[in-house]
Design brief:
Blueprint (H helix, E strand, L loop, with lengths): L4 E6 L5 H9 L6 E4 L4 H9 L5 E5 L7 H10 L6 E5 L7 E2 L7 E5 L8 H74 L1 H14 L8 H32 L7 E6 L1 H12 L6 E7 L3 E6 H17 L6 E8 L3 E7 L32 H11 L3 E7 L3 E9 L13
Parallel strand pairs: 1-2, 1-3, 3-4, 4-6, 8-10
Antiparallel strand pairs: 5-6, 7-9, 10-11, 11-13, 12-13
Helix pairs in contact: 5-6, 7-8, 8-9
């Protein structure tokens, strides 16, 4: 038994289905007829390709049958569509493109008998077009797959070239870093070493008790110079650890504000003559989960910078605040500030502002602070005005980051 030819009829009141139905029940090849009640229902049926041919009244849908058919074609339907035209005529006629998918059928004087073989011819043509389209789609997919493979191969080649370029750039950066290090080290080591040598030579000249005060003065100078050298070497070691991804991370519950107050007191001991570190905590006290040593390093570096670039007797203000989401630390000074044109380079390694070249330092302090802050999953911002001062704000999460790519492997 042959499979029925499935017809969808979208009839906008022409009663064409009432004329067609008796013919379908006659001794002709079997048909099945569906008559959706709305354009939305018709489009839904067309999307699921449930019929062999679609008879669409020219008045169907809010914009007419032709617009309805155009929308169905844009959504991927292969048809065939037969647009029922309210004018005289007797036979199917192709309507424009795509060829073989849309026909016009005048129905005002239509004799239904010749319609049956015409509908079968339209269905056969549509099925052949669909088969050809499927073959074309298969060929297109094969071409696309081969094109994708070629593109991936080209991308791999580009990635290898980019990696080689990155390696070359990295080598150049390391060479520049070594050059900057040697230049800086030759300058920064020379001053404390000269202090140590000159003070040691003078101490040798003091023999009796009357020179005890002078001897003590030069001993303190030597200790200060040694501490300076120790700080420089410590910065270099930290920098090397950061560059080699070896900075450990050990989160603990850090009590605030007691912890920050202790760091402020330690910073006060190293402050310049007459400078005062004023600390205040805003809001409720509590504990944050973070690395205590890294947090201390951040605060000491910022407070040391504030002291170094401020005059004697000036005040340095430190504020902390714990919110539900983050720990906020603010260090504010009344120092020389940073020239506006040099501020974009503030967090680069070995950076020394033009107005601070006469002050001893490695130019690594703020670079290390930024790397420390990023290690704790936070961010740092600043405001600086020459001859007015600088304010640095650090925001850290109150819980440790979810992952730490730089954690050492046991």
């Amino acid at each position: 038994m042959s499979t029925p030819t499935r017809i969808l009829l979208a009839d906008a009141g022409s009663a064409f289905h009432e004329r067609l139905r008796p013919l379908l029940l006659g001794p002709h090849p079997p048909f099945s007829l569906d008559c959706p009640s709305t354009p939305a229902a018709a489009q839904h049926a067309i999307r699921y390709a449930a019929h062999d041919v679609y008879l669409i009244d020219q008045r169907w849908g809010p914009r007419g049958g032709l617009a309805f058919v155009g929308e169905a074609l844009r959504q991927g339907s292969c048809g065939p569509f037969v647009l029922l035209l309210d004018r005289p005529g007797y036979a199917l006629e192709p309507l424009g493109s795509p060829a073989g998918r849309v026909y016009g059928l005048p129905i005002r004087e239509l004799a239904l008998g010749p319609l049956v073989p015409q509908l079968h011819g339209a269905v056969r043509l549509a099925r052949e077009l669909l088969r050809q389209g499927q073959l074309g789609d298969a060929l297109l997919r094969q071409v696309q797959r081969q094109t994708h493979e070629l593109e991936q191969s080209a991308l791999r080649g580009q990635a290898q070239a980019a990696q080689a370029q990155q390696t070359l750039l990295r080598e150049r950066e390391l060479n520049e870093l070594k050059s900057r290090f040697l230049t800086m080290a030759s300058h920064e080591f020379r001053t404390p070493m000269s202090t140590i040598l000159s003070s040691a030579a003078l101490i040798e000249r003091y023999h009796d008790g009357a020179d005890e005060a002078k001897r003590r003065k030069h001993v303190l100078r030597i200790k200060s110079a040694v501490a300076n050298l120790d700080g420089i070497l410590r910065d270099f070691l930290v920098l090397d650890g950061l560059n080699q991804a070896k900075l450990p991370y050990h989160p603990v519950a850090v009590p605030l504000p007691a912890f920050v107050a202790d760091v402020a007191e330690e910073a006060q001991q190293g402050a310049r003559l007459g400078q005062h570190v004023r600390y205040a905590h805003v809001g409720a006290s509590g504990a944050v989960v973070t690395d205590a040593q890294i947090l201390k390093n951040i605060l000491l570096n910022l407070l040391s910078n504030a002291s170094k670039y401020s005059d004697q007797g000036q005040e340095i203000r430190l504020t902390s605040e714990v919110t539900p989401a983050e720990l906020v630390l603010i260090v504010q000074d009344e120092g020389m500030g940073i020239p506006h044109e040099e501020q974009p380079r503030l967090f680069t390694d070995f950076f020394r502002a033009r107005n601070a070249e006469h002050i001893q330092g490695t130019g690594l302090g703020l670079y290390l602070v930024k790397r420390y802050v990023e290690r704790l999953g936070g961010r740092i911002s600043y405001l600086s005005e020459p001859h007015v001062g600088s304010t640095f704000t650090v925001r850290l999460p109150v819980q440790p980051p979810l992952s730490h790519e730089n954690d050492p492997v046991d």
